[in-house]
């Protein structure tokens, strides 16, 4: 990489009311000619660092030089895209560009050419006169990028450009930024890309891994990935249920981390030969990932046994299907949000609803919760038809969304009290349930703390605790772990896996591909239609055949299927 | 505050952007152009504070011809609806019940006293719980008696030996049509709505939508940002003022005795504190909901209640009277009424303009101090 355009040394930032500093002695250098990744879970301090570099916040300690000056001095040469893109939704695409061009003092004679190039580059030329508020999430993000690029910045700061958009848009944006760094027109530009997606970290030229305000790693991402090479293995061909095998393996000494990947179990070991001589499965090396290195730096994942599951009641196995959806259709006016969605979820399994934003998975989810009435079709939860006995159906399910499901200005104890009441537990039942989840999730020390000020990991636990207090046989999870650190995510899925072994049925919506790997069955929803269904391995196989991919990841699979669906639709439209 | 020159191109771009946003937002247009019409019609037609045909009681304790003639004068007065009784007692009960606003007592020796050359005074009792109405009632009741006395004297061919020779006339609004002073007041309310209520939302909205953050990362100066917020709303308010003035004079027949420059000067002066207050609220709260509530409580309600628009300041408790001195509308409304009803009386207008500009300077200072280029609290 080239010259340093931003150098930060020993940056410390504290916020009033929070004990731990948001940034604790962070140093970083952003160079031209490549993408510098700022990687870490939500709450790691990424946004704070970017805002300090952009001159929007003052650091409490440390030295910072941006383009050779104090932050906030060289703003004409700075491109900054905040998390919410900074677009005026009631201005058109062109008016937004014009405004930013005026703000950044782009000369008039360069304007026409620049706009044409950026609109072409972002594929927004067709939408020049459309209000920014009427663009899709992916298009807003591209417009945000175009606005940040309007004056050929020497430093481009992108704050989580991939958040809240689907994998396809995310990939497109990545390709665009990659192209920029190679483009002679933008030569000499340094790019900082912040992300919570660890797979994006692997693609950066240089990475700064941030966790709870501290720098865990800096350097070439391959270096971190390389540090776990040969120690990542895949187990196949075993007779047990895979969740049980994973639990067993995680409880063994020398197993640092483990996840389910379709029908196989993937493990990170402390020594290459840790499982040598074991029988009952086949052992094969697996591709090491950046995340493996991250987990190791965090001290490894949690053990395999879930105390929540151990204390949970056994859900009777012979009570029919947990969730049934038949021909679910929802129309809003002449817009069809979900069309003819059908599936069944037996007890003791995990079912995944996947799809880009706006595809219809939330609509389907809301119909199953009884929050929306289907226009056609029927659905039942735990044997209760949502139309005739919605109350009973809702009492049988626990609902957890990673965002919005807690009251931030109530204490942990008050939240638990509230949800116990909301789920209709008796006073004695509530007391027992609260005592149980407090113990299982180790919430004892934070009972009096306001939920809003908890670290993300605790919020995650509290949200799950609130959802399972009444021991429901069915669990609905809406984007349950997006943005949390991998250890917290492991911990979460350890509980879910344990509950599933107790017979609980789980429905999960996600666009986070790793969560999809935990599912027994997946259905992919796109443009309100179910475009594919099957086990994760089936879908990967289908995608491999369709797009001639070798060992595709879940994300490759997702993208291949959506692209195939688009191609099919376009062919159909062309024929008609 | 970031120092440095204001760049005309950036400023123009921001003003244009703000203007486009105003034009695209139906609620802004509604508040600026439709609401004034509604308010003016409300105060022009529906609400009537005129005291025509005030109900009063008349206690006629004397049977002389003079007493009967005076009683008749009250009964024939176009201003009063009269209930007659022999004594005060039954009338007092009706006054407590709120059925009559005042009592005129014609004493026992009214006729015989006159014959002796010394006429006893009539007594006028008014309901002081409604000071405005009480003032009008006593004034008019007196007027009737004086007119009657003058006519009596003329009939007798000699000047009446009245203890005081007083004649009462209401200037500038001779028929005392409340519309004439309510409509200028309503215009002040409209100016407050646009100046304070609408602008209280504009900076908060940028914070809430995350555009503030993006703008602060451009070379934009905070002074440019603030000016870009002021200019469009200033123009919008002037347009609204023009519309209100046309409506007031053409539709409601409110006279405009002063000059247009005086009206413009006064309006511009009032918009300074109004806009400054709105922007300060917006910059300080960074939240549209909180900002609108504060603007309502600190801008709109005082203009309504503490400016002398609906309630007379002189009849308020002393400590509330003290508070009214920091309500800009208190200076604006009387001056505006003066321009409409009396004319360019600079002795009234100029001090008001000076006070308003002073308030404006204070608000703008606060505003610039609370708008820093930083996300730190």
Record the strand order, biggest sheet of chain A: 5-6-7-3-8-9
The average pLDDT of chain A is: 89
Q: List the helices and strands of chain B in order.
A: HHEHEHEHEHHHHHHHHH
**Oligomeric state, counting identical vs distinct chains:** heterodimer
The biggest beta sheet of chain A reads:
6 strands, mixed
Overall shape of chain B: it is elongated
Strand segment tally of chain B: 4
GO cellular component, one term (chain B): plasma membrane
Transmembrane segments (chain B): 27-47, 181-204, 225-254, 260-282, 294-311, 345-368
Protein name (chain B): ABC transporter permease
Membrane topology (chain B): Multi-pass membrane protein
In words, what does this structure look like?
The complex is a heterodimer of chains A (576) and B (377). In chain A, the strands form 5 sheets. In chain A, strands 5-6-7-3-8-9 form a 6-stranded mixed sheet, sandwiched between helices. Chain A has a 6-stranded mixed sheet with strand order 19-20-21-16-22-23, with helices on both faces. Among the domains of chain A are: 4-224, P-loop containing nucleotide triphosphate hydrolases (Rossmann fold, 3-Layer(aba) Sandwich), CATH 3.40.50; 228-305; 410-471. In chain A, strand 22 and strand 23 (529-534) form a beta hairpin. In chain A, helix 2 (93-103) runs parallel beside helix 4 (137-149) and helix 13 (412-422) packs across helix 14 (427-440). Chain A is built from 19 helices and 23 strands. With 576 residues, chain A is an alpha/beta fold. Chain B is mainly α. Chain B folds into 2 domains: 8-47 and 177-370, no CATH class; 54-156, abc type-2 transporter like fold (3-Layer(aba) Sandwich). Chain B is built from 14 helices and 4 strands. A 4-stranded mixed sheet of chain B has the order 2-1-3-4, with helices on both faces. In chain B, helix 7 runs parallel beside helix 10 (260-285). Chain B is elongated. The chains are: A alpha/beta (576), B mainly alpha (377). Chain A binds chain B through residues 16, 51, 54-58, 72, 75-76, 78, 80-91, 95, 98-100, 102-105, 147, 157, and chain B through 7, 9-10, 12-14, 17, 20-21, 24-25, 209-211, 213-220, 373-377.
């Amino acid at each position: 990489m080239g010259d340093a355009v931003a150098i930060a040394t020993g940056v410390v930032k504290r916020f009033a009311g929070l004990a731990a500093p948001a940034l604790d002695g962070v140093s970083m250098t952003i160079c031209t000619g490549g993408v510098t990744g700022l990687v870490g879970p939500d709450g790691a301090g990424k946004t704070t660092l970017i805002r300090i570099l952009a001159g929007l916040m003052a650091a409490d300690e440390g030295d910072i030089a941006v383009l050779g000056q104090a932050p906030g001095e060289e703003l004409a040469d700075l491109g900054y895209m905040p998390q919410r893109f900074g677009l005026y939704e009631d201005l058109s695409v062109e008016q937004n560009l014009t405004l930013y061009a005026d703000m950044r003092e782009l000369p008039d004679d360069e304007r026409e050419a620049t706009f044409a190039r950026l609109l072409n580059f972002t594929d927004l030329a067709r939408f020049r006169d459309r209000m920014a508020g009427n663009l899709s999430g992916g298009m807003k993000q591209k417009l945000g990028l175009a606005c940040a690029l309007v004056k050929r910045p020497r430093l481009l700061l992108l704050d989580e450009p991939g958040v809240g958009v689907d994998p396809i848009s995310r990939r497109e944006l990545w390709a665009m930024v990659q192209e920029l760094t190679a483009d002679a027109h933008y030569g000499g530009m340094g790019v900082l890309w912040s992300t919570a997606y660890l797979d994006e970290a692997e693609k950066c030229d240089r990475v700064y891994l941030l966790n709870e305000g501290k720098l865990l790693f800096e350097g070439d991402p391959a270096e971190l990935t390389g540090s776990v090479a040969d120690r990542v293995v895949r187990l196949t061909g075993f007779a047990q249920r895979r969740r049980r095998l994973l639990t067993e393996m995680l409880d063994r000494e020398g197993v640092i981390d483990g996840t389910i990947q379709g029908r196989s179990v993937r493990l990170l070991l402390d020594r290459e030969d840790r499982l040598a001589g074991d029988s009952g499965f086949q052992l094969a090396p697996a591709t090491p990932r950046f995340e493996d290195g991250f987990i190791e730096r965090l001290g490894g994942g949690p053990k395999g046994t879930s105390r929540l599951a151990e204390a949970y009641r056994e859900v009777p196995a012979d009570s029919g299907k947990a969730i049934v959806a038949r021909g679910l259709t929802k129309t809003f006016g002449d817009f069809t949000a979900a069309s003819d969605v059908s599936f069944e979820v037996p007890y003791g399994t995990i079912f995944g609803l996947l799809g880009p934003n706006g595809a219809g998975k939330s609509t389907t989810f809301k119909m199953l919760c009884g929050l929306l009435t289907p226009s056609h079709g029927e659905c039942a939860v735990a044997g209760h038809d949502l139309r005739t006995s919605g109350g009973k159906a809702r009492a049988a399910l626990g609902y957890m969304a990673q965002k919005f499901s807690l009251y931030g200005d109530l204490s942990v104890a008050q939240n638990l009290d509230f949800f116990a009441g909301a789920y209709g537990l008796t006073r004695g039942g509530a007391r027992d349930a609260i005592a149980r989840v407090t113990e299982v999730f180790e919430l004892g020390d934070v009972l009096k703390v306001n939920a809003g000020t908890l670290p993300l990991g605790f919020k995650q636990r509290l949200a799950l605790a609130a959802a399972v207090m009444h021991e429901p046989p069915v669990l609905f999870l809406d984007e349950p772990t997006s943005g949390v650190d991998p250890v917290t995510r492991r911990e979460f899925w350890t509980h879910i896996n344990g509950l599933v072994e107790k017979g609980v049925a789980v429905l999960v919506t996600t666009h986070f591909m790793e969560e999809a790997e935990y599912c027994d069955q997946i259905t992919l929803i796109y443009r309100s239609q179910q475009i594919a269904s099957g086990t994760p391995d089936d879908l990967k196989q289908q995608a491999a055949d369709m797009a001639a991919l070798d060992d595709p990841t879940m994300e490759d699979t997702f993208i291949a299927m959506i692209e195939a669906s688009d191609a099919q639709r376009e062919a159909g439209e062309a024929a008609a | 505050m970031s120092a440095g020159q204001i760049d005309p191109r950036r400023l123009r771009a921001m003003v244009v952007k703000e203007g486009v946003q105003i034009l695209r937002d139906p609620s802004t247009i509604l508040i600026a152009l439709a609401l004034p019409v509604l308010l003016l019609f409300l105060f022009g037609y529906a609400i009537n504070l005129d005291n025509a045909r005030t109900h009063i009681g008349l206690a006629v304790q004397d049977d002389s011809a003079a007493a009967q003639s005076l009683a008749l004068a009250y009964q024939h007065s176009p201003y009063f609806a009269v209930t007659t009784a022999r004594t005060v007692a039954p009338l007092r009960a009706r006054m407590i019940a709120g059925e009559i606003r005042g009592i005129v007592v014609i004493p026992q020796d009214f006729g015989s006293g006159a014959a002796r050359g010394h006429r006893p005074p009539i007594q006028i009792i008014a309901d002081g719980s409604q000071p405005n109405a009480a003032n009008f009632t006593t004034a008019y009741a007196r007027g009737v008696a004086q007119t009657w006395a003058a006519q009596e004297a003329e009939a007798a061919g000699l000047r009446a030996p009245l203890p005081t020779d007083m004649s009462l006339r209401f200037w500038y609004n001779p028929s005392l049509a409340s519309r004439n002073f309510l409509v200028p007041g309503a215009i002040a309310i409209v100016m407050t709505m646009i100046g304070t209520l609408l602008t209280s939302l504009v900076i908060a909205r940028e914070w809430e939508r995350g555009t503030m953050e993006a703008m602060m990362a451009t070379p934009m100066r905070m002074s440019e940002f603030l000016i870009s917020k002021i200019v469009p709303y200033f123009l919008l308010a002037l347009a609204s003022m023009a519309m209100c003035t046309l409506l007031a004079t053409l539709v409601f027949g409110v006279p405009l005795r002063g000059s247009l420059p005086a009206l413009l000067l006064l309006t511009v002066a009032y918009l300074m504190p109004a806009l400054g207050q709105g922007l300060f609220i917006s910059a300080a709260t960074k939240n549209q909901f909180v900002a609108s509530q504060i603007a309502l409580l600190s801008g709109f309600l005082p203009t309504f209640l503490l400016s002398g628009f609906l309630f007379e300041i002189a009849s308020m408790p002393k400590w509330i009277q003290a508070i009214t001195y920091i309500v800009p509308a208190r200076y604006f409304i009387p001056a505006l009424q003066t321009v409409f009803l009396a004319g360019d009386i600079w002795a009234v207008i100029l001090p008001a303009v000076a006070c308003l500009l002073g308030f404006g300077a204070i608000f703008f200072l606060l505003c610039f101090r609370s708008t820093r280029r930083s996300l730190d609290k």
